[in-house]
Amino acid sequence: MTIKNSIEITPDLIEAHGLKPDEYQRILNLIGREPSFTELGIFSAMWNEHCSYKSSKKWLRTLPTTGPQVIQGPGENAGVVDIGDGDCVVFKMESHNHPSYIEPYQGAATGVGGILRDVFTMGARPIAAMNALRFGEPDHAKTRHLVAGVVAGVGGYGNSFGVPTVGGEVEFDARYNGNCLVNAFAAGLARTDAIFYSKAEGVGLPVVYLGAKTGRDGVGGATMASAEFDADIEEKRPTVQVGDPFTEKCLLEACLELMQTGAVIAIQDMGAAGLTCSAVEMGAKGDLGIELDLDKVPVREERMSAYEMMLSESQERMLMVLRPEKEEEAEAIFRKWGLDFAIVGKTTDDLRFRVLHQGEEVADLPIKELGDEAPEYDRPWREPGLYSPLAASQIAEPENYAEALLGLVGSPNHASRRWVWEQYDTLIQGNSLQLPGGDAGVVRVEGHPSKALAFSSDVTPRYCEADAYQGGKQAVAECWRNLTAVGAEPLAATDNLNFGNPERPEIMGQFVKAVEGIGEACRVLGFPIVSGNVSLYNETNGEAILPTPTIAGVGLIPDWQMTARVGGANDGDAVILLGGDGTHLGQSAYLRDILGQADGPPPEVDLAIEKRNGDFVRSAIRNGQVTSCHDISSGGLALALAEMALASGKGMTLSLADAVASGHAPHALLFGEDQARYIVTVSSELANFLCMNAEGAGLPFRRLGHVGGSMLEIDDTIAISLDRLRDAHEGWFPNYMDAPVTSATDAA
C-alpha cells in the first residue's frame, strides 16, 4: 500500500518537529522516501531527546546498574529490587519540568500520574511518592504562582489516587526563574514471581488499548520537553496533558486484577509520545512488528487525525499484548471498572510499524530503527572550570552568631516545608511511620511483621555548578546518608538528571562530570542506579538552570521498631558528633544566605569515609543505642542541631571550646559543610560505650553536650530560645504564600 501525503514536508515543518537537517536525511536514508506527516510526527516523537536519550546514552552506560539485589535495571518502566521473603520494591523518578512551567497544576499532576503508572505497569501496588521541586527566586514575578500550582497539582493527584507522599525537596534559586523543575518519584511493592515487562512476544496476538479515551491534550509534549524555552512559551500550553486521578485509581485496580488472570503477555503505559512510543517499544524489544488500526482507538474528541492520535499524551492509558483465549475475561474486568478496552492491533513477524486510519495506511516504518536505533551523539564537551581553595580565614565571621543561625533557619531554602507537605496526604494506606521533614520517609511493608522501606531524594545544585564531579558524588552520598540516618540499608537508586542545552560544550561537560561522580559513588557505596530519567534543554532564552542531578534512593529496614528519627531525643541524652569537625565553607549555605556570596569549591566527598561512618551509624541505630540521628549537610552543624532541637521540642547545651582551642574558627565549625558526618543523641548510660566503639572503628567523634531545657546554647556564641527558632523556621513559607498569588498571565 502506498503512503499518501497531503501535507508538504518543508524545512520549517521539519524544524518545528525538533529534527535537525542531518536527522531528517537519516530518515530519508532509512525509509527510502519522503515520510508522511504522520510518519514525521512519529520520528519526532521517538527521536527527540526526552524519549531517545540521544545525547546521554553514551554516558549513562557507564553507571553501575547491577547487584545481587537488582532484579531489573534500566530499560523497563521502572527498576526492581529484591527485599527478601519473595517481595520486591519497584521504583523510578521522572521529570515533568517543561509542562509544569507552562501549566503548573496539570504539569505537576500528570507528572505524578505518569510515574505511578510506570510502577503499577510492572505489577506493583504503589506505596510511596516523593517529589523534588525547584523554583526561581522568591521575588520573581512567577515563582509564587508556580509554587501554588505545582504543590496543588502534586497533592491533588496523589491524594485522590491514594498514595502517601513521604518526602521530597523544595528549593529556590534565580537560575530556575525561567524553568522550574518537577521531579516525581514513586515506589510500589510486588511479588518477585509476578513482575510484568513490556517486551512483546508471539506473532498475531492482539494489541489491546486500556484505560481512558484519547484526546488532543499533550500532542507533541515529548518534543516540547526536548527544546529550550523562548518568548513564545505560552503557545506551548496545548502540549500539556490533563490528568484524572480517579480514572488512574480504577486503572490501577483493573490492571492488578487483570495481571492475576494470566492474560498479560506484555504491558506498557502510554507516557511520553503516547501510543507511538508504547507500541514501538513493545514491538522493538520483542523483535516483532506492530500493526495498529486507529479507527478502533477510543477517542473523546471528533475528527482526530492520525497524527493527533499517534502523538496525543492523554493520560491514564495502557497498551497490552494479550493472550487471545483470555480476551473475554480481560474485557469484563475493564468494563467492570468503567474503563475502555479495545483491540486496536496485532503483533507481526515483519519488524514493521504499520498504522491504519480510515482505511488508509498512514505509516509504514522499520520498528527497530524507530525504537532502538535513534541517533546517538558523542557531543563535544568541555570540562568545567573549578574554584580555587577558599580558607575559612578568607570568609567573614557573622557579627552576631545567633542572628546568623536564625537567618539560616528562616531562609527560603531552609525554612520548614510544612506548608507544602501538609497539602499532601502523608498517612493514607496507614503504613507511613515518619512524617516528612526528617532525613527519609519510612513506610511499613504491608503483610510483614517488622520490615519497612525508607526513601530519600537529594542533590545540592550549587555544589554541582562549582564542581560537577564532586557535586554528583555528593548527591549520591547524601541520599545514602539520609537512608542510613533512619537505620536503613541503602539498596539502590534512581536518578533524574536535569541540565541545560547539551549542544553547548560547557553544559555537556557538567553532565559528563556529574555522571562520572555519580557512577563512582554508586560503585563504592554499593548503591546501583536501576532506573531514571534525563531532562535536558532546561533553559530559557539561553539561561540554563543549575546542573541538578537528583538522586532518589530506597533503603531496607529489617525491624521498623529499630529506626531513628530527627526528633527522638530525650532530656539528659548526650549529643555526639560522629565523623569529626567540619570547617569547609566553600559553596556553603552560610556563604550564600548570610553573606550573599558564591565562592570556593564544594566540600570533597571521600567515599571510603562515607561508607565507614555510615555503616557505624546504621549499626548503632539497629542496636538500639541511638535515640535520634540527623546527617549534617547544607547549613552545617549549627543548622542540623537547630533542626534536631525543633523536631524534639527540647533544647541543648553544647560546647565547641575544645575544637576552637585547637585552632578552628567558630564560624567554620558551626557552618562548615564537610561530608560523612552525623549528629546522634544517646542516653547518658550508653554515651561512653558509643564513643569507645567509634574510637575502635577509627571514626572521629566529639561529645558536644546534652539535651534539655528550652534553649539552644553553644558556648557563649549562640543562645536562642526554641520559640524564636520555631517562629523563624515555621514562619517563612506561610508568610510568603499568604501574599497575593500572581496569575499566570500577569506573571508572564
Describe the structure.
By secondary structure, this protein is α+β, with helices and mostly antiparallel strands. Helix content is 36%, strand content 22%. It has 27 helices and 27 strands. It has a seven-stranded mixed sheet with strand order 8-10-7-11-9-12-13. Strand 16 (489-498), helix 19 (505-525) and strand 17 form a beta-alpha-beta unit. It starts with 10 loop residues before the first helix and ends with a helix.
Helix segment tally = 27
The largest pleated sheet is described as:
7 strands, mixed
How many whole angstroms does the radius of gyration measure? 26 Å
SSE class = alpha+beta
Helix proportion of residues, in percent? 25-40%
Major beta sheet, strand line-up: 8-10-7-11-9-12-13
Amino- and carboxy-terminal Cα gap: 49 Å
Q: Uncertain regions: pLDDT < 50 for 5+ in a row? A: 233-237, 742-748
Look at the structure and give the mean pLDDT: 94
Number of strands: 27
Strand content: 15-25%
Keywords:
748 residues, alpha+beta, seven-stranded mixed β-sheet, globular
Indicate the topology:
Elements: H1 11-16, H2 21-31, H3 37-47, H4 49-52, H5 57-60, E1 70-72, E2 79-84, E3 87-95, H6 97-102, H7 104-120, E4 125-135, H8 143-161, E5 165-172, E6 181-191, E7 206-211, H9 221-224, H10 245-259, E8 264-269, H11 274-285, E9 289-293, H12 306-311, E10 317-322, H13 327-336, E11 340-348, E12 352-357, E13 360-366, H14 367-371, H15 401-409, H16 418-421, E14 441-444, E15 452-458, H17 461-466, H18 468-484, E16 489-498, H19 505-525, E17 529-535, E18 539-540, E19 543-544, E20 548-557, E21 574-578, H20 589-594, H21 607-622, E22 628-631, H22 636-648, E23 652-654, H23 657-661, H24 666-671, E24 678-682, H25 684-696, E25 701-707, E26 711-714, E27 718-721, H26 722-738, H27 744-747
Parallel strand pairs: 4-5, 9-12, 16-17, 23-26
Antiparallel strand pairs: 1-2, 2-3, 3-6, 4-6, 7-10, 7-11, 8-10, 9-11, 12-13, 14-15, 15-20, 16-20, 18-19, 21-24, 21-25, 22-24, 23-25, 26-27
Helix pairs in contact: 7-8, 7-10, 8-10, 10-13, 18-19, 18-21
